[in-house]
Amino acid sequence: MAPRANWKGYLKLSLVSCAVALYPASSSSSRVSFNTLNRQTGNKVKRIYVDPDTGEEVTSDDQVKGYAVAKNSYVTIDDADLDAIKIESSHTVDIEKFVPRSEIDPRYMDAPYYIAPDDRVAQEAFAVIREAMREGGMVALARVVIARRERIIMIEPWGKGLLGTVLRYGYEVRDAAAYFEDIPDMPIPADMKDLAHVIVERKAGHWDPAEFEDRYETAVVEMLKSKQAGAVVADAPTAPRPSNVVNLMDALRRSIETEKAALAAAEPKPLAGSKKPKATKNAEAVTPPEPKKAKGGSRKRG
């Protein structure tokens, strides 16, 4: 079955336009979902809306949106009122400017969408816009109305199609200063930085999303299987909580030894009679630097 588009309209670059469709490039749905039950009967309960004055249930046909203008005073809004609002970005993704990709702060990035031509007639113009962007080495910024909100969207070539990433507005991103202002500027000894660099090098690798899974959700699935089979679910052992490091130099040294042991355990063992494989760069033994001794004995108090 073909994927269902979230939005259909036109992609426009100056006087060149083509019909396009936007498809969600990510999913927030979870494998495990829960229903609310009545603990006494085991029956699934339903949520109903009740008028607080009459105490009567309000059916979906009688429900309407309302915007509060004062206490207990609302302006009612129907879907038809919202559908009647038409601005250009309701049906057109009009590219306004091109900027370097590196200028887009990752904090502003929200939901990704695949953008593809919506019919055969649009394919040529779509390819022209895509290749012009690819050869220019820039990303496009445009506006589009999604879920009754005009959003900024960053557009870049993605294989045969385009990838559109919805961007947050400036007022939606919190300033970092309030969270980091109490962190002092601390001088870091060179030997500590050297040890930290060794750990970073040994943990270096490449991004592969297949390496990661939601281990909590996996544990939930296993628990559900056990309960379904009638087994008593035992409390899982409590994971040890890390604490602040008291002796940082000692912790760095022990971290290197731990990483070294883990790396050695992961290496394939050679067959009997075969030559020992050469050590890779990351597997080479690294001698942690010794702490620097103060010259001239103890320091004099000033």
- State the end-to-end CA separation: 79 Å
CATH topology of the domain at 1-27 and 63-202: Ku70, Chain: A, Domain 2
Helix content: 10-25%
* Topology as a string of helices (H) and strands (E): EEEEHEEHEEEHHHH
Shape: extended
What's the CATH architecture of the domain at 1-27 and 63-202?
Beta Barrel
Which ranges are low-confidence, i.e. pLDDT below 50, for 5 or more consecutive residues?
279-288, 291-302
Number of helices: 6
CATH class type of the domain at 1-27 and 63-202:
Mainly Beta
Widest beta sheet: strand line-up = 1-2-6-9-8-7-5
Q: Largest sheet, described in full? A: 7 strands, mixed, barrel
Subunit structure: Homodimer. Interacts with LigD.
GO molecular function: double-stranded DNA binding
Function: With LigD forms a non-homologous end joining (NHEJ) DNA repair enzyme, which repairs dsDNA breaks with reduced fidelity. Binds linear dsDNA with 5'- and 3'- overhangs but not closed circular dsDNA nor ssDNA. Recruits and stimulates the ligase activity of LigD.
InterPro entries: DNA_bd_Ku70/Ku80 (IPR006164), Prok_Ku (IPR009187), SPOC-like_C_dom_sf (IPR016194)
